[in-house]
Each structure stands twice: as structure tokens, then as C-alpha cells.
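Re: [help] complex structure
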Amino acid sequence: MMEHILSLITFSPLLGVLLLLFVPRDKAGSIKLIGVLVTLIPLVLAFTMFAGFDSAQEGFQFVEDASWINIPLAEGVTVQFNYTLGVDGLSMPLVVLATIVALMSAIAAVNMIQKRWKEYFILFFLMQVGLFGVFTAQNLFLFFIFFEISLVTMFFLIGVWGLDKREDAAFTFLLYNGLGSAIMLISFIALLVNAGLVEGPAGIIYTTDMQTLTYNLTNPASPLFQAGQYSDVFLYGVFFALLVAFGIKLPLFPFHSWILKVHYQAPPPMSMILSGVLLKIGAYGLMRMEVGFFPSIAMEFSTMLLVLGIVNLLYGGILAFVQEDLKMVVVYSSISHMGIILMGIGAMNRLGFQGAIFQMVSHGFLSAIFFFIVGVVYTRVHTVKFEELGGMAKVMPFTSGILLTAGMASLGLPGMSGFISEFLSFLGVFENHPILAAVASIGIVLTSAYLLRAILSVTYGPTKEILVGMPDARLTEVIPMVVLLGFIILIGVYPAILSDPLQTTLQSFLIRIGG
Amino acid sequence: MVPLGGYLAVGAILFSIGVYGLLTKKNGIIVLLSIELMLNAVNVNLVAFSRFGIAANITGQIFSVFTITVAAAEAAIGLAILVAIFRNKATINASEIDIMKR
Amino acid sequence: MLANAWLIPLFPLISFVLLVAFGRQLKEGAAYVGILSLLASFVVAVGVFFERFAEGAHDYITSFDWLNIGDFVFTMGFEVNQLNAMMLIVVTLVSLMVHLYSKGYMHGDERFPVFYSYLSLFTFSMLMLVISPNLLQAYIFWELVGASSFLLIGFYFFKPSARAAAKKAFLTTRVGDLGIFIGISLLFWQTGTFEYAAIFEAAHSGVLSPEFITLTSILIFIGAVGKSGQFPLHIWLPDAMEGPTPVSALIHAATMVAAGVYLVARLFPLFEASATAMLTVAIIGGVTAIFAASIGLVQNDIKRVLAYSTVSQLGYMMMALGSAGYVAGVFHLFTHAFFKALLFLAAGSVIHSVGTQDIKEMGGVGKHMPITKIVFLIGALAIAGVPGLAGFFSKEEILIATYDSGNVVLFWLALTAAVMTAFYMFRLYFLTFSGTPRHENHHVHESPIFMTLPMIILAVLAIFSGYVVYAGFGEWLAHGVISGEEGEGHHTWIMVLSIAAAFGGIGLAYLLYGRNNKVSTAEPKGLHKLLFNKYYVDEFYGTTVIKPYTLFGYVLKFFDKYVIGGLVQFTAWIAVAIGRLGQRLQNGQVQAYSLVTILGLVILLLSMTAGRLW
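Output below.
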């Protein structure tokens, strides 16, 4: 089973689609049950994978490689797209994260989705295929397909189950991300043509296999590298094109406006996925392709990445401070926290990378729990505006307590995951850019300011009338909160669980950037 | 004996008149007639080449017979369409037939 | 025993976990969980202390790898040295007293178990901070004590003032923590470690440049400034009195706020290596001491007076440390913890009974609360520096240290602050306990045994804890930390002066408030007004930091909405415009289409021919 575990993880949600086909659309109970139980399968599989992951082994593990599409161009020249899956220390934690957040999102949907459950869960299962596939794909072509699957399904999930202005939001989402994927596709083709060449016994093969590309682009032993035939236009062009493509996804400062609209309108379970997992694809892409394919250019522009990260951090932080409702604060805090990832990458050293990866995982859990709680509040009182809320701790002590704890984690309180990621990212930046790091650390105070303002105005103070008599979280609501918070604390207290599998992979990244 | 150039010149002139008519005339029937002109210009060329071509043979003439047949069929269909349009829109003015816009 | 020091923070942690899990079921029984765990901790702490105090004992240090990142190893662990052996006693003892006291004070509160769980969390964090063998661990628990302090200040979360105070406390200390964070990060990259010992070695072996040492020490000191309520980050501490009074006693008087002083003391070898840093510490301390004391002279809220007194006393400790008076500063930290906790608990007892915090509405309380009155008097005498009580010993040492450092201005500042301290404490005492009642509450009564017992214990300590100097406490503390012989000059005149300051302040207070026991109801004017409004520091921050920041936020919001959003709209508009333009071509005229086709054909043919001809 272990040799096919990645395919199993990726495609097991399809089982849910199959099952749902046989369930009448009005049997909401069974549909929800199937929705939750089938999502449990990839989670269990992912934990099996986590347990079986050998952190000492270099390169990719659980690799599956099958011949898939071969297009003969001419005699002895073939364009080859293989079905290749595999995980290393970078993608493995993200797969685990995705499975956890997906399950929590499924549980959240039980209460928060009020119509057309069958279609919802079918699309949701399809989207999971995309989510898990993106992190396991080892071929750019495959990566792109999975990426698009998640995009299109998300479009429908937002467009049908969102709030009042859902269509508008769905189109915004599709346009921005479609633009991003268009740029990405062009970059991939440029990579295929310029760097995907392998000469073998069967003649010349053009491929988008990531490892081949990495080898060709970075390894001094590769024939293409020795020939020095990469033009600057190609290298810098693709580097910046990918920066924009993944920057939109991240989202990077001037490209962030889609996330505002989309998060606001998306149904809470989808916000959890969007912010918890989809944004991480941007970060993952930056790490895997920008740093992985173009280490020397990334090194050259590390200060730029750093500054972009700091801009994101401060910009999101300041804007979050003046928002008038909890959801927008969470959205802007996402922008701000993504800045830390970028900063960690921009640090270009081990601690920075480590911090960035910690931040990916940590923010995945944190934003999921935030959007979930926002959803819990919204389903009760149909507003998350500060002026209408207050004193929630009195009527909903459990939810408020979790919200406060998550806020503390998000602002980097030790003992929880936010601290580790923030601390390591900043520490990494301090090595080479102490002044910039000091400037950026103002962001720590800003983060505390906006989070406390937001959370305290919802939970503390006199209880507003609208909240009186509201029930505290139900069992189906308690589970996601406790589980997500559990992981947040686990990483905060025992960070080695996440950092140990990463070391070998990080080493290979560092060798490429010459560190 | 008229040289090849003469036939080709006639063909070209006929074709150009046809194109001019096709592009400028508003009346649908005149447009159809212009198309006929263009086809006949082609016929002239075909016949001329079958006599003066490098490998002169009968193929060109046979081909022109085909063209005439096709042109007849085309004229018939064209006229039928025009009649249909006239019934619906009470006009055969080409500039008023712009339903492709939508 | 030393190897078992890790048990000390473990007990409160267990108690915290238990209370979080089963608090709802335990109800007020939660108090016993807290008290028993603290008692256990205290017993171990006493054992550890005496073992370390014994002749020929050595520091004990052990750690394990917490996080390995490549070659970087971050460790966690614990150590026992003179300083933290003493701190362990202070923290566990005061915490135990507060746990006992809260059983009476918080009785009937519906969030009683929550309160105890917060207390346990705080005690755990504080103990972990104290026994940290490295800066990273210290920083981690430094933040955690801040968080638990935040939770406890905001314990009455439904009060808007408590919410504001909690937020303010967290943010202000966070600003300070930034200093520590930057400081230790810089140190890490220069020394490659967070371990205290390795950093001290680097500082003294010349690996670190003097400028770098100055920079990092001052940065770390900023953190201490934030936590210990030193000027200019003192603003949160008086507001922190919104929390329940036992919390004020434990966190905002005896232990957490002293963490800043503790950190400077722990890093004393680093600070000592930079004269500039030492001077900064001394000046900030001195300024804070007099600044806060002067505000304390005119405040009317019993807890706020005590809060400013705390700020002032912490300034004293900082000043001592900055003047190279390591033992004096630490010793004052030790004694201050007891008498300040005592004063707060006594104040809490009064508030609990009278139902107000405004001293203008008290008076004559002593008649009904004899025990509280006596213990408060003891505390006041101790802090005023009356001979024979704890405060006298430590205060005198501080005065000597500042004098020996050669900074005359600081010395006189310290002395003035001493007069002020005596004055405001006795103003408080007279207005609260003596004279005739100015309140309508007829149910003023002595507090229950759970509250009086801890006060009595602390009162005993407030008297006798100073006598440890005769047991060689000072030399023991200094051993191995202070390189040279501490300037143990015998300045009898300083002692006389300090006694005179104490009695001068008390006498003045008696003249003004003790005899006639009247409170003026007139609006404060002039200097009085300036002091009453705390030098307008809050307002200053309001207009120079908070307002511009909020304004900037709104400007940026506008920017985000209209400039960035506008750019997006513009991009979309371009696409639409191109579409409109293209739409014109499609007019439905077949003739127009064919014109284009033919033109295209002609161009194609021409170009092909041209290509031939070339």
C-alpha cells in the first residue's frame, strides 16, 4: 500500500463522489455523514504517510512514476508528461495540513451549509483531489491540472454557497487566479522548452518533470547547465512571471484585493480551505519553484523578497487595525502573516526557510480556526461587525476562550505555533539584514494591536443584546476548534515534530543557494 | 491568335468588377450576380490555361464545366435564401441584413 | 535536591491543566488544587534554596534539545543559582499566599476556577522564566507571564475599563518585548547561542565589540522597562489595577513586574561590560523612581497609589543595578516582594469590605478591621524604610550603592523619592484607617481567616526578611557574579539621612492628613493638577502615537480601497475597452467582413510576391 499511498490520498475523495451518486439529494443526514467520513480517509492515509516518512532519506519519497502522455514531435523527439507523485520534507507537512483542514472544513460544513448538500459535497470532494494533488505532483503539467481542479471547483463552491454577493466574488476569484494560472502556464511552457530537455537512449525528450528541471537548472553537472545556454530573458522572465503567478495566490501586496472580496463572501468552510490550504500553494510554489529552480536569482533578489514580505506584513497589519468587522480583520491578518512567509524565504538561510515552512503550516491551522469561529458567530447572529458585537465571553465562554487563545497564537505567543514560525523567520532575517528585521519586528506589535482590538471588542465588554441567549458551541463545532487548537499547541510545544522531517530537504535547498 | 495575357487580363478585369460589386452593392441579387462574375473570371482563366498552360490538356475545360454547375447550384441556393429573407424582413438590402451582429 | 528543581514549576502546570479540564466540576474546590500544588512547589523551593545556600554549593544546570535546525540547537532546561534560588522562594511564597488569600477574596465569583487556572498558569510561567538557563527560554516565558497577566487584568472582562487596561498592558509590554527580541536575536548571530554563560564569556573575552554590547544591553533593557513599568513605558501598570486585587499583589507588585529587574540582574555581567548601558539603566531607574513617587503623592485610588509606589520602587531597584549595586537591587527586589504584596493584600481586604477604592470615601476603617490595619501599618513602615523593618536594610544599601557610584544627582533623587514614598504611604494609611468614616457602608468587617492569615505571614516577613543580611545573604548573592569587592563603605551619615527621610515623610503626612483627617474636594490646580493627571503621559501617547497611527490606518484603508482597488478596476476597464473596440469590427455586414478578407488576401499575396522578388 505504501508505494501507492500518494495516489490513494489524492484520489480517495473520489470514493465520496461515487457514494454520493447513490444517495438521494434530500437525504441531508447521510450526505453529511458521507462527507465527513470519506474526508477522514485521506487524513488517516496522510498520517500513515507521516509515520512512514523517513526524515533521513534525501530526495523524494513514496514516488510513483507512470508513463502518461507522450507526444512525438519528430523522429526521436518526444514531449513527455509523466504521472509522477512524490513528497519531500517540504510537501509532506503540507499534505498533512491539507487533509486536516479538509476534514475540519467538512465538519464545519455540516452546520454552516444550508442548501444543496449533495452538489456541495461532490464539488468538495473534487476539490480535495486538486488540493492533495498539488502538493504531491512532481510534474509541472500534473501540478497545473490539480491546481486548476481546485480553482474551478472553488469557483462553484463560492459562487453557489456564498453570501449575498457570491457571484461577484466567485468571478473575482476566477479572474485573478485564472490570470495567475495563465502566467503560470506560460512559464511552465517556457521551462519545458528551455530547460526540460533530456537526451536518452530513446532520443530527445522534453519533459516538465520537476526533478529533471531542477537538475537541469541548478546542477553544475547537467549538460544544459554546462552549455550555459539559458538566456537571461528566460531565467529572469520566468522567475518574475512565477513570482507574479504565485504572488497572486499568496497574495502579495498589490495583488491582494481579490482575497478581500472572496473571503468575505465565501462560505466559512470554504474560507477555511482557501486561507488554510489554497494560499499555501502560493507559498509552496515560491519555495519549490522560485527557490528550487532559480536559487541564484532568488539569492540575487532576496532583499527584494524580504522587502515585499515586510510590506505585506506591515500593510496588512495596519489595515487590519482599522477594519470594522472581525472577518475583514482575519482576512487582512492573512495578508500580514503571508508577509512572514515571504520574509522567511527572503532570509535565504536555514532558519528563515524553516520559519517560512512553519508559518505555512501554522497559519494554515490558525486561519482555519479563525474563519471557523467567524462562521460560528455568523450562523448565530448574522453579523460580525464590532459595533454590534461585544461581551461574547459571557454567553459563549468556550468559543470566546478558543478565539482568544487562537488570537494569542496568531500574535506569536510562545507555546503555540505562531511563535515558532515568527521567531525563526525573524531570526533568519536578522543574520544578514538586522536593520530590516528590526523594522519588520514592528509588525509584531502591530499584530498584537489589531488582534487584541478585534478579539477583545467581540469577546470582552458588556454583552450586547443581540448575543443574549445564544447557545455556546455544539459538539460538531467543538471538535474542529479543539482539534485545530490541539495542533497549534502541539507544534508550539514540540516543534521538532515538524522540523525534523524537513532538515534533509532544507539541506538540499541550501546547497543549491550555496549556503 | 490572342495571347495568354489577353485572356488573363479579361479574367482579372472580370474578377475585379465582381469583387467591386460584391463589396459595394446593396442589392442582394446584384451581390449574387457579382459572385457569378467572379466565378466566370475563374472559368476564363481555367479555359485559357487548358489551352496555353505548360502541360496543356482538357482538365481545365472539364473543371470549368464543374464550376458552372456549382455556380448554378449556388445561385439557386442564394436566391432561395434571399427570397426567405425578403419574406421575413421585407428587404434584400445587404446593409440591413446584419443579424450576425448578435 | 537541586536536580529536582524542575518539579517546582511542574506543580502549577499540573494544577493549570487540571483546572482547565475539570474546573467547571470543581467549582470553589479549585482553590485547593491551586493551593496544594503551590504548597508542594514552595516546599521544593525551600529545599532547593537551602541546599544552594549551604556552604560550598554550586550552580546546577541541565538542559535538553528542544529544537534542532541543522547545526542550530535550541535547548530548554533549568538551572539553579543564587539569584534564582532566591527568586523561586519569593515567587512560590507570594504565590502561595495569594492563592490562600484569593480563596476568601474571590469567594462567590462565578469564574472562580478560571481565576485559579490563570493564577496557576502565571505561576508556572513565572517559575519557568526564573529557572531558565538561556535567553530563549526566558523570552518564551517572559511572553507567557505577560499573557497570563493580560488574562488576569481582564478578568472582569465585562467592564470596558478592564478590557482597555488589559489591552494596554499587553501592548505596552509588547513594545518593550520587541527590544528583547531584537537584542537576543542580535546576540544569537554574534555568539551563536542563547545560553547565559556563553554570552557572558563572549562579552568578557572581547568577542563582542563594546558598541555591540551597549546596543544589545540597551535593547534588552527596553524589554525590562516595559515589563517593570519603568518610564516611559510605565503607563500600563497603574491601569493594570483593574484586575482583582490578589492579582495586583502577585503579578503587578511582587513577581512579574520584578521580572524586568530580575532579567537585568541575571544579565548583570553583560550590562556591566558596558558603562553606557549601566548609566542608562541607572538614569531610567532614578527618573522612574522620582517620577512615579511624585504621581503617587496625589492619587486617590488606593490601588493606584500602591501601583505608582511599585513603579517607583522598581525604579529604585533599576537604579541600584545601574549603579553597580547588584546586591542592593536584588535584595530590594526580595524585601519589596513581601511588603508590597502585603500592602496590596491589605488594600484588597479593605476594598473587599468597604466596597470602594477611593480613599476619599474611606476613613476610620481601622476600627473595624484591626488586623488589616496593623499589617498595613507594618507594610507601610517597611516600605518607608523605618529602621528595624525589611525595607530599611535594602533601601539603605541602594542609597549607598548610588552614592558609591559617584552619581550625586542620582543619590539625591533617590533620597527625595524616599521622602515621597514615606509621605504617600502614610497619607494612604491615615486617610484609610484613621479618623472618622466618610462612607455610608455600615457592614465594614474584618476579613475571613483565609485572607488574614496570608497577610499575617507576609507581615512577619516584611519585618524580618531584612535580617538575612546578617546571615551573609549579600555575600552569598554576590559570589561569582560580582567580579570585584563590592564597595562596602560604611557611610553612617547615609543611614542617618535615610532614617530622616523616612520619618520626615511620615511626619509630613501626619501633619497634613493624620491630624485633621480631611480631604480637600477642590479641583487640583497647578503642579497638583499636573501630578494628578500623571504628567499627561497617557494623553501624550494618545496624541503622538495612537491617533496618528489610526489616522494613518484610515489613510491606508482609503489607499487600499481606491488606489489599489482603482488599479484593479482600471485593469478591468482596459480589458473592457479593448473589447468594445473590437466589437465595432463585428457589425454584421457580410460585405465588410469580406472586404477585410480580401484585403488580407491581397496583402498576403503581395507580400509573398515581394518575398519572391527579393
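Chain C has a mean pLDDT of 86.
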